[in-house]
Each structure stands twice: as C-alpha cells, then as structure tokens.
Amino acid sequence: MPATLNLDSSLLDMLWVLWAAALVFVMQAGFLCLEAGTTRTKNAINVAMKNVADFAIAVSVFWLVGFGLMFGDSRHGLIGTTLFGWQLEASSHWVITVFIFQAMFCATAATIVSGAVAERMPFLAYTWTALWIALVIYPVFGHWAWGGLLDGAEGWLGALGFVDFAGSTVVHSVGGWVALAAVLCIGPRKGRFNHGKPPNAFPSGNLPLAMLGALFMILGWFGFNGGSTLAVTEQIPSIIANTVLGAVGGILSGMLMGLRTRRYADVMYAINGAIAGLVAVTASAHVISLSAAFGLGAVSGVLMVLTSEWLLSKHIDDAVSAIPAHLVAGVWGTLALPWVADLTLMDSGLSRSAQFGVQLIGVVVCGVWSFGSAWLLFRITRRFLPIRVSPDAEKMGLNLAEHGAKNELNQLLEHMRQHEQQGDMRQRIEADPFTEVGEIAASYNRVTAALESAVGHTRVMLRNLRDGVITWQADGTLTSLNPGAEQLFEVDAKQIIGQPVSQLLSTRSLSPGARHEVKRRCADMQVRYLEVQVSEGASGSASERSGMVRDITERKQLQEQLNRERDLARTTLASIGDGVITCDASGNVTFINAEAKRLTGWTLEEAMDKPIYMVYQLLEEASGQPLNNPARQVLTQLTPVHSTEHCLLVNREHSHTPIQHSASPIRSRSGITLGAVVVFQDVSLTRQLTEQLSYQVSHDNLTDLLNRRAFESALTALLNRDDGHHVLCYLDLDQFKIVNDTCGHLAGDELLRQVALKLKNHVRSSDIAARLGGDEFALLLPDCGIERALTIAEALRCDIEQYRFSWQGHTFGIGVSIGLVELNATQPMQLSQALHASDAACYAAKEAGRNRIHCYQPDDHALLEKHGELQWVQRLQNGLDNDTFRLFAQPITAICADGPGYREILLRLEEQGEIVAPGSFLPAAERYHFMVRIDRWVIRNTLAWLGDQNHHTTLPSYSLWGINLSGASLSDADFCRDLITQVAMANLPHGTLCFEITESTAIAQLSRVSELIATLKEYGCRFALDDFGTGLSSFSYLKQLPVDYLKIDGNFIRNVHQDPIDRAMVEAIHAVGKALGIETIAECVETQSTLDTLHHMGINYAQGFLLGRPEPLTHMAGNRIKVMPR
C-alpha cells in the first residue's frame, strides 16, 4: 500500500481516460443493438455474435501486436517497434491507460464492417477480416497519423500536420474503406435487387432496439471524443457539446432528407444521420465552435442520404449504411476541418489552404491503404476460405446455419410440418405452459384433440365453454360463435353471423398458428384484454378457420404488476454495491448478484443449487480458523445474524478479502421460512484509508518521522513505566536558517529530509525518532543507559557535522545541538517536565558554543538560566489568555519631508501593574512560536482602535500608523489571508496603515512578501523596510520590493555625526531610496547633533527618544477611551 494517496492531476487524467474508454466500450453495445435490430431476426444472433467476437479478437490482436505498431517507437515514421504485448507488462500506468482507450478505438474500427456485410458473410471469414484489421490495417495507418502519442516521434503523416482529433479518418474511414471493399467482393444479399424493379427493402428485426443502439453510440461518443484529450482539461465540455450538436444536426438533416426522398421520416436515415454527424465532428471537435459542429453534422446527414441512395442505384448492398455513415462522413469531416476550425487552437502553423492540402493527402492515403489492403485480403482469403455463405444458409438464416441457434418456434413449426406430412393427428406436441410458444403448442394439441371427437360432442363443449370460439371461412365470413364469444364480444350470434370477421378481430390477429392479444373497450368503457388463438381446419371443400378467445384481463394486470416488481428487484440487486447471495430452505444457492460474483469468484450459473457453504466461505481474521456460515446459522436459529468484527472471505481462487456481513431469513406472508439472504461488503478500501489516515495523523509529512503528537504519546507511555532506564534526546540544527534563508524553503525542506535519514540510520529498531517542528527533532531511546545514549548522540552529531549539503551550486555545513535527559523510575517526571528539561539541555548546548551535547542535571546553572526563559512560556500564554498586552505609540517626525510623519505601534506586557519592555519577552516569544498569535492580537486590537477613532472622527493629527509584522507571521499563509481580510473589513481611509517588515524577513520570503505588499496596497496600505542596511544583499533586492519607506538601522545612526563610515552608509541608503522614490527614516535619534546631521543629509523622517518616547494609545484618545485597546 502506498504511504500516501495523493489525488494529483496525473491520476485524474488516467481516471478520465479510463472512464472515457468505458464509454467507448458502450459504443460496442450500441453497434450490436443497431446492427442486430436493423437486420432480419433470423440473422440477428449472427450479427450480435460477430460484434462480440470482433471485440475479443481486435483487443487481443491489438494488445499483442497492433498497439506496438501504432504507438511504439517509430521507425522512419512508418511503424512502431516497441510496446508489443509481451512488453506492456513493464510499461507505466499511463501507457496501460492509453492502451485500454485505444483498444476500444481499434474494436470500433473492426466492428464497422460487420454491419455492412450482415446476413451474407460467414462467421469465420468475418473474424479473419477483423483479425487483419486490428493486426495491420488500422495500426499502420494509425501510426502514420497518430504515432508519437507516447514518445513524441510522429508518424510521417502526422509530421506533415495532418489533424484528426478522435478518428474521423483513422477509425471510421478505415473501417468504412474496408467495408466498401467487403461489400464489393461479396456482393448483395439474395433478393435485395431485382432487374428493372426498385430495391427490395428487407424488414428490420427490431427497430426500437436499433434506435436504442444509436443512443448508446451517442453516449459512447462522449468518451470517444471527450477522452481523446487524454487529460482533464477545460476543452472537455466544449468537445462533448460539439459531439452532441453534431449528432443532433445529423439526425435532423437525415430525417428531413428522408421525408424529401421517401415521403416519410425514415428511421434508418435518422439513426445513420446521428452516426454521420458524430463521425463528421470527430476530426475537429476540439477546435470548432458549437454552430460549426451543428453545421458539420447537418451536412453529413445530407451526404449520408445522398450516398445511400447512390449505392442503391449501383446495386451496392450495405445492410446498415455503414459506408455512408462512417466512410463518407469521415472524409467530409476531415476535409472540412481547415475551413471551420479555429487555427489558433490547432497550433499547426499552417494556413487554411495548406492545412486542406495536408488533410486531402491523409484522406487519399487512408483510402489507398485501407481499401487496397482489404481488397487484396479478400482476394487471397477466398482461395482458401469462403467469404459468402451458401444460398441455403442465407435462406435459412445465419442464426441457425452458423450457430445452431434454434428456438421453440422453430421446433414447433417442425413438429407441425411432421404432423401435416404424416396425417396422424393422434400425436401431441410437448408444450411448456409457461412460454408463449408453449401456449401455441397447447392450443394446437387442443385443436387436434377436438377434431378427433364427435362433432356433436364438440358443439356441446363449445356451447358450454366459458372461452369464446368463433369460426369463419377463408374469405373472412363468420360462420359461428359460441355463447362465450357472444359474451366476450357483446354481440348477438344471429345478427353477426355472415358478417366479416374483421368486425370482431383486426386483420393482424387473424393469422393462424399464433397467439394474439386484443385490446377492446366495452360498452361500460372499461378496457378488456382478450387472447385470441387461431387455427386452420376444413369443412367440406371450403377452408375454414377457428379462433379461441379468452378474457385475460386479470392475468394481464397481474403479469404487469409482477413484471414491474421483478424488474425493480433485479435492477436493485444488480446495482447495489453490496454482495448479495440468497439460498433456499435447504441452504442451496438461488441467486448471486454482480458484486457477490466479483468477491466470491462464482457466477450464478456455477453457484446455482450449490450448498452456500461451498460458495461463501469465511475465516476468522486473527486466527485464520473457519467460521460458521451465516446463512446456515439463520436457517438453524431463524433469527438475523450481524457480524461485529471483520472476517475474511475466501474466494474461488483461495484469495482473502476482508468483509462485513449480515444475514436474515426470507419468510413468506404466512411466516414460513423460505430461505436466507446474506449481504456483505468489501471493506478493503475502508481499511486502507483508515490505516493511511492513521499514519498521516501520527507522522510528519515532510520527513516521514513521528510528529510531535505521536511522539508525546510514546513518551508518556514510557514515562508511565516503572522499570528500566531510558534517555530523551532533544536535537536542534545549527546554521539551518542560513540554508533556509539563502536557498529558500525547498532547500530547507530537502535538508530536513536528509537529516531525518541520518537519524534513522543511527537509531535501533526499538528507538523512536520524531520531528517536533521547524528544525527541531527528538529521539527516544527505551531501555538505554546514559553512556550508550551519549555514544549514539555523539555518532549522530559527528555524522551531521561532516555532512555537506549541496543545493544549486552552493555547499553548506551544519551542526546539531543535542540535549539529553535520563528517564528512570527513581526520578519520575511528567511529560511537560521531560520536554522542558530536554529543551533546556539543548539550549545549554547551544549557549555553550553549538554543535555539542549537553546532559541535563537538576543543579546545572546553565539550565537554571534556561529555566528562567522557559518561564516566559507561561507568562506569554497568560498575557494572551488574560489580555494583559498593551499598545504604545512612538512618533516618527518629518525633518525633510512634506508629510506630518506618523506613529509606530509598539507592544508592551503589563504584569502586576508593571510594564515589561518587549526586549524581555520577544526572544522567548520567537523561540517558543508565540509571534503569530501575538501579531494577530496586535492587528486585531490596533484595527479595532483605529476603526473606533475613525468612526468618531477623533484621530490625532498623525494619520499614518505603523504596525510591525514578524517573520513567523509572514511565513504563515493563514495569517496573511486573515490580515488581508481584516484590513478589508476595517475599511480605514487610504494612507492610514503602514506595515513594517524587517529587511532579513523580506529577503528570505521575497515572493510571499511581494505578493502581500501588492495585495494590501490595493487597500491603501504603505510598507516600510525596518533595520535596513544590516544585510549584504539589501540593495540588490530593494528594487524588487514596492515599499514606501526605508528605516535605516540604528547602528548606523547613533554615531553618524562623528563616524565617516556610518555617514557614508546612511548617505548611500538615502541616495538609493531617493532614486527609487522611497523616503528614508532614521531610527535611534537621541541627540541634537545627530538630528542636525540627518537634516543636513536630507533624511526625510527621524525617530528616537529625542523626538518623543512611546506612550500608551489610551493617552491619545482624550477622556473618551481609557481601556482600549488590549
């Protein structure tokens, strides 16, 4: 299992392409329905079987050879030479994804031929043809046009600039050319064309099924075109929209052309119009507008109809119009592309006319290659394999001739013919009473039995029969009705006899040897369903027929209700994601749904009537011992069973799947137990996600070490032990900030990962390593003495000291300060005590010179000093919790500037009535990560105070207020977002706020700081660089930061009136600032001579005790506010 599950863009791309492949597979079902529904019923199974077979053959051959020829490394742009079936095993997931997607395309190209040659091409000859399409014809041309999809080396045709986005030519024209060669070589179906007469239209077996197939194909085309992006891109919606509009345009134009040419809306023209429209837009779906897609589809529908009529006039028999819909529409869509496409989206670098020339070359090459190869294939094949069925087989139908697919009706007719030939009416036909044909056979048997009885006896029976019986002559004249018929038809026999039988029954229901249903509306306006069974007989020399009429209204209603319930139950069980197995009262399997089939490995046919314990076997997960079968428990106890723990399901291949299950009895309305149902779920993914989430919660994402929370849990457990000696090590990297600030966070992250690897290399399997945060790590050494711990720590310290980190041409050396604390039962510690002690020991190691080891001793003076600093943690926390921080302001006075200057907001801490200066607590706040929370407090309270002052128009004359931002806060993305939100909500006048950032912070986070400055300046904020001049790279980065003020570091200001070097530095900073339009502020101005020197130099502003000391903000609000802000 992977350590993490990142849903990155590559996984989304693969998921989209696989989903698109599934949709393209739906097109295979669409082709099957379309071709089976269009052809005659006696050939429908043969056509469907060809579709199934060509899919299997095409995918197999494409896997073995075709994919490699098409997408392998190109040789001279002619064929691929890698990625054959035996090489795909080692390919990447993306290559496998592309193979699945392209295999569906290959199967589509092959199956186009099956419809064109339907009802006359032998099954073996067709599968032979499909093999060569997938093996050579399609892959070779596909390489010419689409080669280089994986390795970048294009085929020769693609290199010319030929564009065929999803296969108008590569897929559909190739299949269409092969279909044209096939129908020319094989010839038309028998009886299709008669000399001097219009073409004979053969009846379609099931046009609704054909229309359903067309809808399946439209659905599949969403994946055909949409998936051809091979990535989740912004183009997908427009591509799918173009696909839909192309189909719609083709349907409408096909229907209109059908009305024009045949005076009725021809179903096949509408269906093939949709296909033609889809094919036409396939070449350019990614670069055309919606209106262009509709136009392409509409024109393709017209071309399809015209081509179909032309083929008929030339006696070329295309059974499903595959050639007009795929070949002609593909040529049209490919050639029209340069004139309707947005050339800026194509990026081919060709003009429209030049692009048309390339497209024309592609179409011609496709025709010569595909048609020529197919023509040669059929010429060679017919020498050793028939490519057309015999006349008898064609007459009989290929269902029976090629597949031996008999049905009950065939058998019934054969028995009836035998009776007719033998003349022995004593024989009876075996009839299944639960089928329609069985009912016909039963009626036939009843008729023969009645003919053997005396006429008088028959009349008595007919008179007393509740069902209706009517007889009529061959010309349709009624000869008799029994009382049952009079009641059912609500007529008087005396008045109706001699009238045409059509007054009672429609002509459709008068055909003999079949059962028909008649819907009648009675005199009371209620609907009644009648079942009519007609048989032939003889009365003297006049042929006579009789009909048995039965009222089936109640049965019809009950049957419809049962059908609805059955369909609902089947659909529900097939669709749910849980496995479902049912068994009868004996424990034998009666049903398995699709999910149960997947988990157990048993199909319904294989598992039917098998004992459920053979199909559904369970093991206890912990011990591996067999568990009682829940269905058997239910049948024994007659109560439901629910699993409380996960168990393992053993499938047919003896692999194990963790599941949860429940079982319940199936009872009749009377409470009799009929069987049991077991419902179970695969919990593998749930378990994997749970384990992954648990791992992520307890581990650091960057270093893969334990995080602070998990480490503290482990430390707590160790502290609770009352035996053994253990050691806690606290590690803090030295010189890490140099790497992080110089090379950026990426370099810092990589350095932390390298250090983590060294930690793992130096610890035992029982030791625990963790990253506590930043550049701080910890080691927990259970059952380890202090001497052994010192050895481990020293080896680790030396290893890190000798390590040289290289990044983009720079090499850095680092060190590590390590604090050790011995843990044992004789000197028990709490978690906080152990952590503080180790932190203090590490601090002592740093204070002693860094890159060394220090062992914690309770009386260590260095640690006592550190403990004093640690006390600030509680004091700072109290300050935040109890709101004891205070805001002060110090003026910044204009000395050579037009503005009035501004005030800088400063922070103090009030404890027991005393004000604590920031120099006492800010170092501890930075070390113990309080700065972000403190900055949030300052921002929130300052903006609240300024907003209140602005609302009451009592702001002092200083209209600009400076607020300091720490480096830790600027590194926090959440803080930056909240800062922008709060400034926007405060809605202060522009020029009210000025944020001060230290020079080192700005340079270390140049990109983030620049972005923040740009955003806040939109709200009228200004920015100042604090402590400017302390860094060597100050001037090189200055022009990249859009700041308003430079606050010159006080170290240059204090002696500027007497130190020429300081004076030169200040003059240089002021000159650069002036050149960039940035005003300068001198800090730490404490003497008049310093101020005079600065004034003479032209420094704009000054700040220091000479000009004003910090004072509380509450003193600046008059008498109105005495507490705000806090």
UniProtKB/TrEMBL annotation:
| Record's keyword annotation contains Membrane | yes
Name the SMART domains for this protein: EAL, GGDEF, PAS
Q: What is the annotated localization of this protein?
A: Membrane
Query: What's the name of the protein?
Result: Ammonium transporter
Q: Which NCBIfam families did the record assign? A: amt, GGDEF, sensory_box
User: What domain of life?
Assistant: Bacteria
Give the coiled coil ranges.
Answer: none
Report the principal subcellular site: membrane
The gene for this chain is amt
Give all residue intervals belonging to the PAS domain.
565-638
